[in-house]
Amino acid sequence: FITETFIYLKALIPSEEKEELKMDFIKTSEAYGYETIAEAEEKALAAKYEEGRSEGCEEGIGIGLERGDLNARWRIAKKLKLAGSPLSFIAEVSDLSKEEIQNL
To answer: So where are the chain's domains?
Structure first.
């Protein structure tokens, strides 16, 4: 809790008061055996990195699923086109435009 509070306050206070806050944090940390400022900042940075990485992975998975879905619709439309199905039917079942189907 103290680490999170320090990091939060550090972002809010004017720069001339940051040194005083840092010294208070060090005294409190030493008195109670808490981590150093560097360790606190490193943990906060690691948490932000992991959060960003996780969000990036989720976004990448979403993009991959969208592309996979589109590729599947193209494959189905192409098979239906080769089988001689009407363009309007292919567009309806594949959710592709008639222009996209004609370009297959």
So the answer is: 26-103
CA atoms of 20 and 16, how far apart (whole Å): 8
Closest CA to 5 of 23, 21, 27: 21
User: How many CA atoms lie less than 13 Å away from 48 in the CB half-sphere?
Assistant: 8
pLDDT per residue rounded down to tens, the chain (104 residues): 556 766 767 777 777 777 787 777 777 777 766 666 667 777 878 888 999 999 999 999 999 999 999 999 999 999 999 999 999 999 999 999 999 998 88
pTM (whole model) above 0.85? no
